[in-house]
Every structure is written in structure tokens, then in C-alpha cells.
Specification:
Elements: H1 3-21, E1 86-89, H2 91-97, H3 100-103, H4 106-119, E2 127-129, E3 135-138, E4 144-146, H5 155-164, E5 168-173, H6 179-184, E6 187-188, E7 191-195, H7 221-237, E8 241-244, H8 261-272, E9 277-280, H9 289-295, E10 298-300, H10 317-321, H11 323-330, E11 339-341, H12 357-369, E12 374-376, H13 385-392, H14 394-401, E13 407-408, E14 415-421, E15 427-433, E16 439-444, H15 445-448, E17 450-451, E18 453-458, E19 463-469, E20 471-477, E21 481-489, E22 494-498, E23 504-507, E24 510-512, E25 521-530, E26 545-551, E27 558-560, E28 564-567, E29 577-581, E30 587-594, E31 596-603, E32 609-614, E33 617-623, E34 630-638, E35 644-652, E36 658-660, E37 662-668, E38 671-672, E39 675-679, E40 686-690, E41 697-702, E42 705-706, E43 713-716, E44 719-722, H16 724-727, E45 733-741, E46 750-752, E47 758-765, E48 767-774, E49 780-785, E50 788-794, E51 801-809, E52 815-823, E53 829-831, E54 833-837
Parallel strand pairs: 1-2, 1-12, 2-5, 5-8, 8-9, 9-10, 10-11, 25-39
Antiparallel strand pairs: 3-4, 6-7, 13-14, 14-15, 15-21, 16-20, 17-22, 18-19, 18-21, 22-54, 23-47, 24-46, 25-45, 26-37, 27-30, 28-29, 29-36, 30-35, 31-34, 31-37, 32-33, 32-35, 38-40, 40-44, 41-42, 41-45, 43-44, 46-53, 47-52, 48-51, 48-54, 49-50, 49-52
EC number: 3.2.1.22
Pfam family, one: CBM_X2
Region (Disordered): 32-61
Length: 840
């Protein structure tokens, strides 16, 4: 069985204990059958018959602070979710111990709480989360109750001990309702008119990934009352946190064949009445990110971090490495009230983590700069000194708790610079070397949005490094290693802020991109240079679309995991080579500008399934298995993307091998024609027409060397003429002239269509500029500073223009200011870039 399948099975075994807890009297867990048929059997020691605790209706005390809903912006937990939480989860050790259903016993959890209190709590760790298998039966209302075997003194007594240590407590549940609870037809506590037998959606539908239960009919008012009764019971025990697992779309089911969104909303509403944190799991579908943000305080973005190798290790480097592309997809969805969950940070003990020291620090850095919930999965009674140092560095913790998720400058290589702009105008910068060899790595300040010099501080070493102008280079970053810095701009520096930065607040309905953006792009004009004396006739137009073929060894394709290249195979591959891997979870990714992409590879008996993601969303699971080998097969194709910036990622799911042979990109052609001919003995200028406004043509270059405008080429309207005098200097053969076009800042914009929609930006400085798009579909916008109307800006233009300075205000007093922009007219208002200058 592959590790991937062991992962799903073992998780199902532990979750299956939840089913054992809700069986009626006389049945065992082995008799339970979910709608999906047979499932992994729970641990026999936990497959108990129904039990009833001494908790009765009369003994349940409702807390005094019950409210009708959580804060709209901070989720069900309210203000406490303004920062990512710090704590511990039991699941990694449940897997490692290979006795998951019994490991979370009273003595073990007590020991973990006491260890946290002594070692980590002074640094902010204060959550003890008990994962699957905590429960042991139901009460007479069909509500799960704690296992008396695991907690002989009662779970409330254990929770009291944890609370007395100054910590909070979390437990676990999954969507759906079991067949046993349906058949038992229990009364719903507090709603005698409701019975559990009427709560399943009809016809019966699978409720969770494993098929343990049925989907709940949330259109039935009794369903919400039943969920409320369960949450009220948990709250009476003192529960502060709920992990809700197997949530769909996600959890390996993104096609809406399973959909738990309505149940998640019901649980969210119930938990908000008690300010209980709601964390969703696992591998949530990014297509529904806005929905998850509206109902939860956190969401797992990927599969489990555990390696599922009991007694050997908690995790492995590939499980950390695969999080980087997920973090690049999800970063802009996190913020106060809801956080991107990367699963347990298992870096506390080198003898069991499964990572090198460099990899442990890299993982801790990724969690910190991503503002991911900073919770560990180690046995806290056995933390080593290095692990404690990683987990208690106050400057690294401050980065995490600042709640400013980092983004990559680029993911086009394994040497990646990630950064975030902080509220005080400083930057957090991480240099990740995801490659296999050491390397010097440079952070260019301009890539961060900083124009000027800055001081640099090493946060892991807690040491100031000095002031640098324009960039900083870290020497010899080890493979799988990292450097983490705070970059503080010097006086008079200017800071550029992109439209998607968390410091920009939007009011009204705004969307990012959605075909409102114009990306920067380059396109070659290929000139066939001859020396025959025969003038070649003009080339016909290209119909508005061009294709770009990329071999598997293209430097822009990023391979994550253990990939190798096989050449000279003689099997019909494109350019006679392929890239291949044998490890499930390994991936390739490629970022491009265009409107379509094809993944072309070999199909073969040794190959299996590949998950294809576009812009972070799972688009298809393609099967590359075949009874016989066939080369250059198009296994995935998409052609209806908005013309803009996109990323395709393929992840190995099964089979012995996964191969990459070629990618084909389709782009909107900006040159007509895209090819031309020039003969040295019959010289004539070459012309092409550009599809963008001539002011958007940034440059023309040959092998990286810029042509001189006015000398080597001229622009008249939309016609670009390459002068014959320049072409005469080119050698016979194919000359590629790269036409580069400007784009929106970082290739994206935010846009609103309703008049009155607005954005605000708070800054400390002496001047501020607004740089954005002009377009035929835009109208006027009012600009306010510190609450006073300064001017009305006309954003209309006959052509779509990028990065246009439309507003500037200088001479502000050195202090805190607020810029506000309000849509007045036009079909669309676009926001692209804000810029402010620090005091001298």
C-alpha cells in the first residue's frame, strides 16, 4: 500500500472511532456501514457499544456570554482569532505511536499540558487540541460523550486541569450523521419536537470522505437545533476549539459530489454562540475560499503533514516542500479572523521529526512568515534543545503573530524570496533554498516594493547586519535551508503597495482580476534573415492566437520533490527526453501568461493518476495509465482561461512513475504578423502591428540587448517598423526580436462595479501616490485624505493603459494618514498600486 493510501486509511481509522461513539445500544463499530459501503475498521479497543455519561440535561450549565453570532470579520471565535493561534495537536503523536485511539488518554494529555505550561507557554503557546478518538458513546439525545476508558475522571476534569494551566482545549468532529443515530431516532435535547431519525438529507447522501455517515438536511430546522445541542454540551465541558475534519469540497472530493458547506455553516453558527474557534480540515478547495473565510477561523490547505511511518518519524521533507506552492496560492486569503492552516509544525525533536536541522528551521520559518497557526505535534515532554530554540525565538514568534502572510516574489525557481509588508512599513523577508545545493541568495528591495536603502536584521540570529542600498545577499544558504530577515526602510525611502496587500481595506463588492487585469508579457517577432537577392512576400496575419511549446527541461518549470531527467530514450518524446519521478506528492508547476495550457506526456502501464491544479484550484485528476506505451499524449487541456497570469501544477497521485514531456501555452497574440522575412540583397524595412496601445510597448530586444527606439525601430500609431539598417547587421538565419509590453503592477488589480464602493489605506509618511489603470470602461473617483475630499480623478481613457499616475499628494505632515478612494461613475473602478514616502 502506498504512503498516500496509508494516509487516508489511517486517518479514516481514527475518525471511525467517532462512529463507534454514536452507535445505539447493542451494536458495535464493526457493524456500522456508511453510505459508501465498507470502511476501515476502527481500533477494536475503541469500538465500544453505546454508553451514557452521568451528564444530564439538568447538569448542563450554559455560559453567560452566549451571543447570536460571531464577529462578521473574525469568525465564530471572535476577537481571539485576530491572530493565528499557538499550541499543540495530538494527531501526529497518535500516528507516530501506532496506537492513536489510546494515546490520547488522560495521563498523556495531562503530561502534554504540563510540559507546555513549563516549556512553551511563556512564549504564547496555549492550545491543547485532542484529535480523533476522544469519544466513547452517546447520551440519550444522540450527542457524543467522552470515552470513560480514556478519561476515567471525566473529560471535564481533564479540561479543568488544562484550563487551570492557563490553556485552552480543542476536540474533533466530522460532518454527517451516522446510520445508528438515525435508526435510534433520539429526541433532540432542548427541542422535544425534533427527532434524529428525520435529520438526514433525502435521498440519503454520503456525508464525509470516508462514508461514515449521511449528509444532514440543513433545510430542516431541527438539524440546526441538533447541532446546537451538541455544541452546547461541548461548551458546558469547557471546550474552546473544534477541528471539523473531512470537509468538502476538499478532503480529496472537490467535484461537489460531497458538499458539507451547509453543515459547516450550521456548526459555525452554533460555535459562534460560545465564541469557540472553528478549524476546517483538510485540503480545502480554494475555489470556495471566500466561503471558508465567512464561516471559519482557519482551514487546512493541504493533505496531512504526517509521513505515516509509525515509530520512525513524524513527517518528511517532501511533506514540507509541497506546502510552498499551496502557500503561494492561499496567502492572500488569510488575515484577522481566519488563517491558512499548514497542519502540525513538527520540529521539536530531531530524533523523531524526520527532518534535518536546516529543514526544521525552514519549516518553522514557513509557518511563521505565512501566519499559519503555530501549533506543534511533537511529544512536548521530549523536546530537544534545538527544538525549543526554534519554537521560542521571540522575534520569529512576533513575525507569526503579526498576522501578515508572506508572498513569493516568484516561484519560477527553487531559490525563492518571500516577503510581507508590515504595518510599521518594515518588511519580513525569507530566503528559501528549496534546491539540493547551497547557494548565495539575494533579495532585491525593488522586488519587495521598496525604493531606497534599508537596515537588515537576521531574526534567527537576532543580530543587526547593517544598512544596504537596493539589495541584500545572504551567503551560502544551505540546501533546504533558509535565512529570515527584517528589512526596515531608511528615511526618504518610498514604498509601493500592491492592490492585494492586507493593508488595503475594501468596502463593497470587489474582485481580484476576473479579466479586469492586463499582465506584462513579451512576444517574439521572428525574422528569417536570408542573403539570396530574392525578396520574400509579406507574411499573412496569425489570427490573434499564438502557441508556445515548452520542453520538460525549460528553466521556468519548477519541480518539487525527487525528479530526474531521462534523455536519448528514442521513444518518440518531444526533444527525446522527459522529466520523471517515482514519489507520490511530487509536483511540477509553471507560471505563464495566456488563456490556455496543455500538459503533454507519455501514457504507459507503469504510470497512474496526476492531479492538475490551475491557479490553485483542482481542475482534473488525469489518468496517464495505459495498456501500452504511447508518447506525446495530451492528457490535460484547458482553453477558456481569462487572458492573464496563471499557474498550472501537476501532482503525482499514483502509479510507479509520473512523467513530464511538454507544456503548450496559448496566448493572445499582440503582433500581427508574428513572423517576417528580410534579405540582405533586397533590403526593406519590416513592419508589424501591435494589438496594445503604443504607449504600452516597453521595449524591443534581441537576445537581451535593447534596440534603440528611433534608430533601430520606430513606432507610428500601432505600427512598429524594424529598420533595414539594423536587420542588415543580423546573421543569416532566424532572428527573434522580443517585444515587451507593460502590465498592471504585479499583473493584477482589484475592481468594483458599484458606485460608492471604496478602498482605504492607512500609512505614515509625507506623500502618497495612486497609480492605477485608465480604460474605456472607467469613470470618476473621489480621493480623500484624512477624511477630506481632495480631488475627483477622471480614470477614463480611449485605450486600456497600465500603471498610470492619477493622483499625488505631497507636503503631508510626518504622521499617520488615511487615503480613501470612492467610485463615482463608470462601469468599473480598478485599483492597482499605492505609493507613499517616508519622512526625511
Amino acid at each position: 500500500m502506498s504512503r498516500f493510501l496509508r494516509n487516508k486509511t489511517r486517518r479514516g481509522v481514527l475518525a471511525g472511532v467517532l462512529v463507534a461513539a454514536v452507535l445505539p445500544i447493542g451494536l458495535t463499530a464493526s457493524a456500522a456501514q456508511g453510505p459508501g459501503g465498507a470502511k476501515p475498521a476502527p481500533n477494536a479497543a475503541d469500538a465500544k457499544t453505546k454508553t451514557t455519561t452521568s451528564t444530564t440535561a439538568g447538569s448542563i450549565s450554559m455560559p453567560a456570554n452566549v451571543v447570536t453570532s460571531g464577529s462578521p470579520s473574525l469568525g465564530p471565535a471572535g476577537a481571539i482569532a485576530a491572530k493565528p493561534y499557538m499550541g499543540w495537536s495530538s494527531y501526529s503523536m497518535q500516528v507516530y505511536s501506532n496506537d492513536g485511539g489510546n494515546w490520547i488518554n488522560e495521563a498523556q494529555i495531562t503530561a502534554q499540558s504540563d510540559a507546555m505550561h513549563k516549556k512553551l507557554q511563556p512564549y504564547g503557546f496555549d492550545r491543547i487540541n485532542i484529535d480523533a478518538a476522544w469519544n466513547g458513546g452517546t447520551d440519550e439525545y444522540g450527542r457524543p460523550v467522552p470515552s470513560t476508558k480514556l478519561y476515567p475522571k471525566g473529560l471535564p476534569a481533564l479540561i479543568k486541569h488544562i484550563h487551570d494551566n492557563g490553556q485552552k482545549v480543542g476536540i474533533y468532529s466530522i460532518p454527517g450523521i451516522s446510520k445508528a443515530v438515525l435508526d435510534a431516532n433520539y429526541p433532540v435535547y432542548g427541542a422535544p419536537e425534533c427527532r434524529t431519525g428525520n435529520l438526514a438529507k433525502q435521498p440519503l447522501q454520503q456525508g464525509d470522505y470516508w462514508g461514515f455517515g449521511y449528509r444532514v438536511d440543513m433545510d430542516n430546522p431541527c438539524a440546526q437545533k441538533y447541532i446546537d445541542s451538541i455544541v452546547d454540551l461541548m461548551a458546558s465541558w469547557g471546550v474552546d476549539f473544534l477541528k471539523f475534519d473531512s470537509v468538502t469540497p476538499g478532503s480529496g472530493k472537490n467535484d461537489l459530489s460531497l458538499d458539507a458547506r451547509d453543515e459547516v455553516k450550521g456548526w459555525s453558527q452554533a460555535l459562534a454562540r460560545h465564541k469557540i474557534w472553528l478549524e476546517l480540515s483538510w485540503a480545502l478547495d480554494i475555489n470556495y475560499a471566500d466561503y471558508w473565510k465567512s464561516v471559519a477561523n482557519g482551514w487546512r490547505v493541504e493533505w496531512d503533514v504526517e509521513c505515516y511511518c509509525p515509530g520512525e518519524a513524524l513527517t518528511a521533507w517532501p511533506n514540507i516542500n509541497r506546502l510552498f506552492p499551496k502557500a503561494a496560492d492561499w496567502w492572500r486569503h488569510a488575515g484577522p479572523g481566519g488563517w491558512n492552516d499548514f497542519d502540525s509544525l513538527n520540529v521539536g525533536n530531531g530524533t523523531m521529526d524526520g527532518l534535518t536541522k536546516d529543514e526544521r528551521r525552514t519549516a518553522a520559518t514557513l509557518w511563521a512568515v505565512s501566519a499559519a497557526p503555530f501549533y506543534i505535534g511533537n511529544d512536548m515532554t521530549k523536546l530537544d534543545q534545538y527544538g525549543v530554540e526554534l519554537l521560542t525565538n521571540p522575534e520569529v514568534i512576533a513575525v507569526n503573530q503579526a498576522g501578515r502572510p508572506a508572498q513569493p516574489v516568484s516561484t519560477k525557481s527553487n531559490k525563492q524570496v518571500w516577503y510581507s509588508l508590515n504595518a510599521d512599513s518594515s518588511y519580513t523577508v525569507a530566503l528559501f533554498n528549496l534546491g539540493t545545493t547551497e547557494a548565495d541568495m539575494t533579495a532585491k528591495f525593488s522586488d519587495l516594493g521598496l525604493d531606497g536603502s534599508a537596515t537588515v536584521r537576521d531574526l534567527w540570529a537576532r543580530r543587526d547586519l547593517g544598512q544596504y542600498n537596493g539589495s541584500y545577499t545572504a551567503a551560502v544558504v544551505p540546501p533546504h535551508g533558509v535565512r529570515l530577515f527584517k528589512v526596515t526602510p531608511a528615511k526618504k525611502a518610498a514604498i509601493r503597495v500592491n492592490d492585494d496587500d492586507l493593508r488595503v481595506a475594501y468596502d463593497g463588492v470587489w474582485t481580484r482580476n476576473n479579466n479586469n487585469e492586463v499582465p506584462a508579457v513579451s512576444e517574439p517577432l521572428t525574422v528569417n534573415v536570408t542573403d539570396t537577392g530574392t525578396q520574400t512576400p509579406p507574411v499573412a496575419g496569425n489570427g490573434g492566437t499564438r502557441t508556445v511549446e515548452l520542453n520538460n527541461d525549460n528553466s521556468g518549470i519548477v519541480y518539487t520533490g525527487s525528479w530526474s531527467r531521462s534523455t536519448g530514450r528514442g521513444l518518440g518524446d518531444y526533444q527525446d527526453d522527459v522529466q520523471y519521478t517515482e514519489t507520490n506528492g511530487d509536483a511540477f508547476s509553471y507560471s505563464f501568461v495566456g488563456n490556455g495550457v496543455d500538459y503533454i506526456t507519455e501514457k504507459d502501464p507503469s504510470q497512474g493518476e496526476v492531479e492538475i491544479y490551475v491557479d490553485g484550484a483542482l481542475k482534473a485528476t488525469v489518468d496517464t495509465h495505459a495498456d501500452s506505451r504511447s508518447a506525446q499524449q495530451t492528457v490535460f487541456s484547458i482553453s477558456d482561461l481569462p487572458n492573464g497570469s496563471h499557474t498550472i501544477r501537476g501532482v503525482k497521485k499514483s502509479g510507479q512513475f509520473m512523467l513530464v514531456d511538454k507544456l503548450v501555452i496559448r496566448q493572445e497574440s499582440l503582433l500581427n504578423p508574428g513572423t517576417a522575412s528580410f534579405d540582405k540583397q533586397a533590403q526593406a524595412d519590416v513592419t508589424t502591428e501591435i494589438a496594445r496601445d503604443p504607449g504600452e510597448l516597453a521595449s524591443v530586444a534581441n537576445a537581451g540587448k535593447l534596440l534603440v527606439k528611433g534608430t533601430d525601430y520606430t513606432v507610428a500609431g500601432k505600427v512598429v517598423t524594424i529598420k533595414k539598417e539594423y536587420l542588415a547587421t543580423q546573421p543569416v538565419g532566424s532572428t527573434k526580436l522580443d517585444f515587451s509590453f507593460k502590465g498592471d503592477y504585479r499583473d493584477d488589480v482589484h475592481a468594483a462595479t458599484a458606485d460608492g464602493a471604496s478602498l482605504t489605506f492607512a500609512f505614515k509618511g509625507v506623500s502618497v501616490d495612486w497609480v492605477t489603470a485608465l480604460a474605456p470602461d472607467q469613470g470618476n473617483a473621489d480621493v480623500f485624505i484624512d477624511g477630506k475630499l481632495v480631488t475627483r480623478v477622471n480614470l477614463h481613457s480611449d485605450a486600456r493603459l497600465t500603471t498610470q499616475p492619477v493622483f499625488s499628494k505631497t507636503g503631508l505632515t510626518d504622521g499617520n494618514h488615511t487615503l480613501k478612494i470612492v467610485k463615482v461613475s463608470g462601469d468599473v473602478l480598478r485599483n492597482d498600486q499605492l505609493r507613499y514616502t517616508l519622512a526625511k
